[in-house]
Amino acid sequence: MGSYLIKRIASLIPILFGISVLVFTILHLVPGDPASIMLGTNATPEAIAALHKSMGLDQPLVTQYFHWIGGILRGDFGVSVHSGEEILPQILSRFLITLQLTVFGVLIGWVLAIPFGILSAIRAHSKTDIIVRVATLLGISVPNFAIGTLLLLGFSLYFNWFPPIDVVSFWENPAEAFQVFILPAVTMGIVVAAGVMRMTRSAFLETMDKDFIRTARAKGNSQWTVVMGHAFRNSSIPIVTIAGMQIGYLLGGSVIVEQLFSIPGLGQYILDGIYQRDYPVVQGGVLFVALVFVLVNLLIDLIYTWIDPRIKY
Amino acid sequence: MKKRVLAGFFLSLSLMLSACSGGGGTAAPGDQAKPQEGQQAAAKTELVVAAEQEPVGYDPHKVPAASSVRVYALIYDSLTKLDENMNIVPNLAEKWEITPDGKTITMFLHKGVKFHNGKDMTSEDVKYSFERILNPDTGAIAKSYFSSVESIEAKDPTTIVFHLKNADAAFIANTASAYASIVPSGSTDLTKEAIGTGPFKLEKSEPGQYVLLKKNPDYFNKDLPKVEAIKFQIMKDEAERLAAIRSGKIDISVVSADSAKLLEGKPGVQVKNYQSLEYSYLGINVNKKPFDNPKVREAISYAVDRNQIVQTVWKGEAALTGPIAPALTNWAVDTASYPTYKTDVEKAKKLLAEAGFPNGFDTQIETAATYPDMVETAQVIQQQLKAIGINAKINQLEWGNYIETWKSKDMNLMVGRNTSGVDADRSMRFFFSSTGSANVWNYSNPAYDELVNKALATVDQAERKKLYDQAQTLLVADAPNLFLASPKNYYAVRDNVDFTPSAAGEVYSLIKTSIK
């Protein structure tokens, strides 16, 4: 287990290095440069050249790459070419916001998904099952910007209620933070729920067919004991897998939800960086997201061994 | 039944929410109260303005982003400014004198103006600011506006003299630009400092969330500004801005023409508009075959029905335009005087045949996917050109890519938008003279160059007007661009806010805004 952990963590280095090269190259291959985007169609060639120089973009690409990666290794993510702000503090503070939103959204999603998913599996082909499946289908197929917009307009039009505009953290003021995050989290939660619910249903259906469940029933256990005591843990692996992937994606920034509700999260930060060709912001942001993603995956793999003792690394 | 279920759902959720807000604790004042009460509280002196984009720094000489300009133009002052009729009026400069040869401009500064740090604003600061703009290392946006300046002399603390290489009739108008703001002498990093003489001070900037400006109590115009604070709240999504203004969370927001229609007649909100200085155009690369043939361009001009663009793209809420947007009433020529503005498909076909393309040809139109109006304009033009046999493919580009293509001078046709600027010189010379830095169409006509250069050197405004009239007529006939429509801009404003937008700019309106 220990050596496995070390191996896994060591394998992060080539992964992150590969990502850094990839994102750097792709970003610089995309047409458009920050100086001309900043100056727009009002640009004079001298102004663009001067801006290039001050952004350090007149250097050869390889020099730029090593300058950047060297900084990262020293913990210096550089400054935004657009605003001149330090990038790392920005990434961290925005990640915290995204983290709060994700935790809230995922909780809502699971609270909805797991009980209904189980219910739908143990009452397969009943009315309940059909309702749950239709709801799942809706949750998967209606895009989250539509759900978000409906929630936003619905609340402001019918109840004149609009979430507080300034984001506060849960540690500062839980009540206000709840109001800020509730609509975006519900928006996110619906999408999360749909995926998890589907997986829960099919995983349970499969498990409920297994011999050990029949044995458990034959021994006269109650439905509750059979489902929660025997089936639950044995169905968890695929659920945890999909949940882990969802968390990874959401932590990378649920761009649309953040945009819709003006949540200054990581996704929005990187997206703005892409529009403005703010190279250090996008590179640093993507690298950070990649790191979070692989760490979440590692965590999921570790959770597997706890759920199913047969899995050993 | 369904409605009731939905209403019940919203009701229960909102009850849950209002229950939560009861224990709000130490939230910012105003946020805790219900929106309507917050709006009507007598003590409300903070104006909340929705910002669609985040400001990207506050250096007025270097940052052209509109999201930044709207903020720093409230922090800094320029020597002159515009009034709502687009006339140049005094600002930091109380008055000015121009020698008869037009080569020496003496400006007398307002006395007793202080920077936000308490320092007096003197002619040395003005000299420093303009020298900073003219220094190539700064990469200042306004450098080209002041290329006629030879030297600047701080004669005494309140007198500044500009010595010009040649007479420059646009000089005074250009000093009204926010890009020519006066900054304190010796400032090095203006990106975040933001110390000006303007009506507001930069209080706080929360990345991704808001920018808070507080009233400058020492502002040299004692009656202004009328509110204690302005908060620019960053809200990128139009649906969110609409919901926020309807529920009173924000006071002022730019809205699209479509949303303006939705808001009309809704309680608590007023929609206000003004004729903008912008215009849309179809750019034509005059170097590219077959567009190097003037007859082909003329044919395109006859084939395009500009009125249809006004009706389809702008729902009738735009004006026909020439090279200078109609909001600049002093300079714009009446579009009725341009022969090619009367759509004539037969004539267009004939011209095309004369040019050697009786069956038309294939080409492409580049446009920016970022702006739906540009895409729609391109689509309407595509249809109209089809009528004379020109088959145009539309290429929708992402903004960064679009700018690159624009700069490349290698496109065929391109749909875009320009801002006229406040003086005719910018609309004409900057975009279309042979050496104009925004002339990416390769248009070069010595007769045109002579007209606009002569106009720049002419101090007599009536004479200038005549020259620009000729230049506009010539330009429309040569058609390196087809000038299409100048749209209206819309603001949604809460009922209790006295805000009147005009082409003079948001800043001009915001300073005078009060809350009832």
TrEMBL record, chain A:
It comes from the Bacteria. Pfam families: BPD_transp_1, BPD_transp_1_N. It is found in: Cell membrane. InterPro entries: BPD_transp_1_N (IPR045621), MetI-like (IPR000515), MetI-like_sf (IPR035906). The chain crosses the membrane at residues 12-30, 95-122, 134-158, 178-197, 237-261, 281-307. PANTHER family: DIPEPTIDE TRANSPORT SYSTEM PERMEASE PROTEIN DPPB-RELATED (PTHR43163). Belongs to the binding-protein-dependent transport system permease family. This is ABC transporter permease.
Automatic annotation (TrEMBL), chain B:
The keyword Signal applies. It holds the Pfam family SBP_bac_5. The keyword 4Fe-4S does not apply. Gene3D superfamilies: Dipeptide-binding Protein, Domain 1, Dipeptide-binding Protein, Domain 3, Periplasmic binding protein-like II. Keywords: Signal, Transport. SUPFAM superfamilies: Periplasmic binding protein-like II. Residues 1-21 form the signal peptide. Residues 87-438 form the Solute-binding protein family domain. It comes from the Bacteria. Belongs to the bacterial solute-binding protein 5 family. This is ABC transporter substrate-binding protein.
